[in-house]
Amino acid sequence: MGIVLDLDLPAPALTAQLCDLASPSGEEGPLADAVEAALRSLGHLTVHRDGDTVVARTALGRPTRVVLAGHLDTVPVAANLPTRLDDGVLWGRGTVDMKGGVAVGLRLAAHVPAPASDVTYVFYDNEEVEAERNGLGRVARQHPDWLAADFAVLMEPSSAAVEGGCNGTLRVAVQLTGTAAHSARWWMGSNAIHAAGPVLQRLAEYRPATVTVDGLDYREGLNAVGISGGIAGNVIPDRCEVTVNYRFAPSHTEAEALDHVRQVFDGYDVRLLDTAPGARPGLDRPVAAAFVAAVGGEPRAKVGWTDVARFDALGVPAVNYGPGDPQLAHADDERVHVAEIEACEARLRAWLAA
Length: 354
Ligand SMILES: [Zn+2]
Fold this sequence. Notes:
Layout: H1 11-20, H2 29-40, E1 46-50, E2 53-57, E3 65-71, E4 84-86, E5 89-91, H3 99-111, E6 118-124, H4 135-142, H5 144-147, E7 151-154, E8 163-164, E9 168-177, E10 181-182, H6 192-195, H7 197-205, E11 210-213, E12 216-219, E13 221-229, E14 235-236, E15 239-248, H8 254-264, E16 269-276, H9 286-295, E17 300-301, H10 308-313, E18 318-320, E19 335-337, H11 338-353
Parallel strand pairs: 3-6, 3-7, 7-18, 8-17
Antiparallel strand pairs: 1-2, 2-6, 4-5, 5-19, 8-18, 9-15, 9-16, 10-14, 11-12, 13-15
This protein binds zinc ion (ZN).
């Protein structure tokens, strides 16, 4: 018998309870057990479990279905648990990223038994680690039917603003070659590090675009993020590699983005290292527009890559919307104003009831 979650607690107190049951990535089991038990006790939900991911669905036969999703894991605890409530601010690991959002999702699951759209609640594991372990990605591969919906809200911290879509990202290695020689007889060789000069010049002169997609502005970027070369202090290097990261607007496919990078480095040996697609915000769809109208505020483009892209890949437009300042995520002094958690819950509840 594990810990019992009390979904009748106000969202801030439930957030504290969730945080105090520490769940760094890979250790979500006890929390997932508690979430599953709490959701199974609610008669109006059908509950599925895959690994440490719990999915709960209403089945009211509504014409539309929406997803509310949040991850159960956190980055490692940094001597910042148990939580502490001080003057309306809850301090501790997970308060921002993202057990405030999880608490709101659980409260809505328990207390909105007859929403206007059917709702699928997703609480998943291993978001804060390498992509292959991501619970949402695993469910998307193994049970895509569990995630089928018209619209998804990922309750990641966004300071309670709607953040739509995200840029795609890819990394390439631009490889330079030369001829090795003793540096005392340098004229016998050809220096691969010097050959990187024009590559860096192209990066320095590159003017990234800002691309408007479905009404939101996505700022692209093309940057060197690494450089390696040289084997000893007396050898002219015959190899040098510049690692370049391209953040591209969600109106471009990964293939188009790679073509663009190859054009920028025309004449060079460019090798793809990894890539992840962007996600369109989908705010032109009525179901998304209704969400923005219900929760209020001015939507903005999401800067970093997030799991909304996994929904987009399934054909489900998705936005980020949740309590907490994303700049405090993962910080040792992670903390959230409890009023923001309550406001998010009230707005999402009004949206679901509409
Ligand atoms: Zn997160």
